[in-house]
Design a protein that fits this description.
Blueprint: E1 3-7, E2 19-24, H1 30-38, E3 43-45, E4 48-50, E5 56-63, E6 66-73, H2 75-80, E7 99-107, H3 110-114, E8 120-124, H4 131-136, E9 143-145
Length: 157
């Protein structure tokens, strides 16, 4: 099962800024495996992999101290990594053309979340690896996902 954290110290250039972090198991549930496959579709730079926002994004919903993070990806991007978008029947509320491939919930400190960077960092690691071990590794690069598009992004103005 994917794990959700909010931690400072993830961004080397801004170590004091908290970051929403997901850890997906490459051998885990179908959504985790789909997200893991997206690592090969990203472009790399500065020790991270970037998923282009026109291919997929993270959606955050905070209700009290419960944070929900959904990963939405367009079928074309999923097809590029051999994942059948039809295996994911739920769709993004921001854009119904995008499939929701992963849903993760967790209890968080709302004040810490309010200071968090606007992106989500996704690491791939088995359930036996702790976040501190993943963050300490030079070999575990995160995939960075921006927040989803806003309705203002859909206008021609």
């Amino acid at each position: 099962m994917a794990r959700l954290h909010i931690r400072p110290g993830v961004k080397p250039d801004e170590p004091e800024v908290p970051v929403v972090v997901l850890i997906v198991d490459p051998d885990g549930l179908p959504g985790e495996r789909a997200v893991y496959e997206l690592f090969s579709y990203c472009y790399e730079g500065d020790g991270v992999f970037y998923l282009v926002g026109t291919d997929g994004w993270a959606e955050h919903t905070l209700d009290g101290d419960r944070l929900v993070v959904d990963i939405a990806v367009y079928p074309g991007a999923l097809g590029q990594v051999g994942v059948d978008a039809g295996a994911f029947p739920d769709h993004s509320a921001l854009d119904p053309d995008a499939a929701l491939v992963l849903h993760v919930e967790g209890v968080v400190d709302p004040e810490l979340y309010a200071r968090a960077a606007p992106a989500t960092a996704v690491f791939a690691a088995g359930p036996d690896r702790l976040l501190d071990d993943v963050l300490a590794s030079d070999h575990d690069w995160p995939m960075v996902l921006a927040l989803g598009p806003s309705p203002a992004d859909w206008t021609d103005e």
